[in-house]
Write a structure and sequence with these properties.
single chain; alpha/beta; Metallo-beta-lactamase, Chain A; 6-stranded mixed sheet; 18% helix; globular
Length: 197
């Protein structure tokens, strides 16, 4: 399993990094299978430096704050209007309930079909499990002011645990247990976390 950091700036894209976005790849039968964990603002541009967005097999969104999902609107445009590509099936997007409506509202003015022909949204819940190529991805509900999930990604005997935005919570223990790599968003909480120097 390979991990590429597309962006890791918190809350908004920074001068040298997009917001959250991570490319995870593994081999199966001589071909690379690619997943994306979050696609925050700016991450779609970075993704294109590593592979054609049409080569992505699925996207997993932790929560619906813009710094974790907003570039899905750009991906919709890429897939719908790209002039030199044949039609492709809708890309599976696994996300909290309401993602399709939220992102359609962000891209106001589309026709009655919305994003359906380009992005196929699947709501996740605590314990949701998706098998895709060599991957098994399990969702864990985490502690954030909005509905949010961490993802445990397993392939080839390796485990990547991605927390997304969360405060401490009981589900982190199961999410991160025996992981080969824990990819954890982190930040200071004003008034609670003190920097001592």
């Amino acid at each position: 399993m390979r991990l590429t950091v597309l962006g890791c700036s918190g809350s908004f894209a920074g001068p040298t990094s997009p917001a959250s976005g991570y490319l995870v790849q593994a081999e199966q039968d001589g071909r690379s299978v690619s997943l994306v964990l979050d696609l925050g603002n700016g991450a779609l541009g970075a993704l294109q430096r590593h592979l054609d967005p049409d080569a992505v097999s699925a996207i997993f969104i932790t929560h619906l704050h813009p710094d974790h999902c907003l570039d899905l609107t750009g991906l919709y445009v890429y897939r719908k209007y790209h002039p030199n590509r044949p039609p492709v099936p809708a890309l599976p997007v696994y996300a909290p309930a309401g993602a399709q409506e939220r992102l359609a509202a962000a891209y106001e003015g589309m026709d009655e079909r919305g994003m359906d022909e380009q992005l196929h949204f699947h709501p996740v819940h605590d314990g949701s499990r998706v098998r895709l190529g060599p991957f098994v991805v399990t969702a864990y509900r985490v502690n954030h002011p909005v509905e949010a999930y961490g993802y445990r990604v397993e392939a080839d005997g390796q485990v990547l645990a991605y927390t997304g935005d969360t405060d401490t919570c009981e589900r982190l223990q199961a999410l991160c247990a025996d992981a080969d790599l824990v990819l954890a968003d982190s930040a200071f909480v004003e008034g609670r976390d003190l920097l001592r120097g």
